[in-house]
Amino acid sequence: MKPSPILKTGFVLFSIFLILVSCKAQQQGKMTSEKLIAEEYIITQLGEQEIVDSKLTLRVNPENSKISGYSGCNNYNFSYKMNDGVLDLGFASATKMYCDDQMDLENLFFQKAASVTQFDNSSEVIYLKSKEGNVLIKAEKKIEKSE
Questions:
Q1: Are 130 and 117 in contact (CB under 8 A)?
Q2: Residue 46, SS3?
Q3: What domain range is 39 assigned to?
Q4: Residue 42 domain-assigned?
Q5: In CATH, what number is assigned to the domain containing residue 103?
Q6: Is the pTM of this model over 0.70?
Q7: How far apart are CA 19 and CA 13, in angstroms?
């Protein structure tokens, strides 16, 4: 029994559909700098430690591939790169002040930032993650206070 032309056409169309859906799924899983959303955030978690009242900030600027902010005592800046779906923050540049009561928190921030290789973000929150997918830094959208 010979397969009908309609069956052959249906099979070909179904195969093309599967290929297109597969390609789209692969593109969605790939991280690119365009997926980092330009936003200002307040850092609320470093590793397992919640730090709601710390005033640490994180500002994402995908136009020039920069992440910057305030780390508890100093201002910092990362020039990030995306390579094969891996986020590389590179080395941080920071001001060089010493703040006796904030250095432990600032050191924790830079320790966590050094292990970041992934991210998930929206206009409300950003998660910077390790290669294992553990959240290293969580930051929530900075809400402007109206007077």
A1: yes
A2: strand
A3: 33-141
A4: yes
A5: 2.40.128.270
A6: yes
A7: 10
